[in-house]
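ok so i was messing around last nite and threw this chain in just to see what happens. nothing serious, just curious
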Amino acid sequence: VLKQQWGKLVHLVLAQIRSAEDAEPILEKFESDGIINADDKESIQAVLKPFLIHPDVSKYFVPGLNVKTEPEILLPTGKTYRPDRIVFSDLECTIIDFKTGKPEESHKEQVRFYMNLLKEMGYANQKGVLLYISEPEPLVEVF
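result:
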């Protein structure tokens, strides 16, 4: 699988995962539906397993969280945006964007943009987080 396609596949899988326990059944379903083959499943599993149990990441994948995956935000202009994941709590909403490549400043700008959108929608306390799937230290906070 090409690098760009692989990134899209990983995003597709992550969009379905509400809690870490969902990963295995979702990968099984993707394989049985013919979306991914056995090799893709294995390589995605190999990356997602350590990613989802990393202490900086796992807190965003615990059962019972109020999570929206790829929610569509429609602007008055008609333009739409889809953050990868938003976790809502009583105190704040955490905007999460997943990345399969190396950290770049433009990634932070993208999350800041999402944070501003949610602020305009009335969510006073937002936290921005970039999660780099293939990095040993996956979490980058965005301010």
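not much to say yet. Helices lie at 3-16, 23-32, 38-53, 55-58, 105-120.
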